[in-house]
Amino acid sequence: MFADLFPSGRGRPSVPADVIAAAFVLKELEGLSDRQAAAALSRDIAWKAACGMGLDEDSFDASVFVYWRRRLNDSERPHRIDEAVKDVAAQTGVLAGKARRALDSTGACQARARMRSSRRW
Fold first, then answer.
1. Buried b (16+ CB within 10 A) or exposed e, 78-103
2. 3-state SS class at 35
3. What percent of the chain has pLDDT over 90?
4. What is the reported pLDDT for 11?
5. Whole-number Å distance between alpha carbons of 115 and 96
6. Rg of the Cα trace of the chain?
């Protein structure tokens, strides 16, 4: 899934691809900054388990997120982690029947304000 990010074959990234991919997903799910996510990975047992790390393993520096994000953004498939998550969700049906809707109430608030101001006259 990530072989094209390191085409030279010389060396490998210091953080395994599956660990950083899981950390990216958790980071986005919880809305954390890179520093907060790195800190969560160092102290949160659930994060370590989700990323496949041992309890005694050290986390990585927040700059690793920047390094991987740059590699992903420069690749031909920058959204591959999102695509993989969507595929798993579709295959397992974990999100079946769930939908998120957003309502922008700006127009309703403006209409209400106009109604209130017209009643005063």
1. eebbeeebeeeeeeeeeeeeeeeeee
2. helix
3. 56
4. 64
5. 41
6. 21
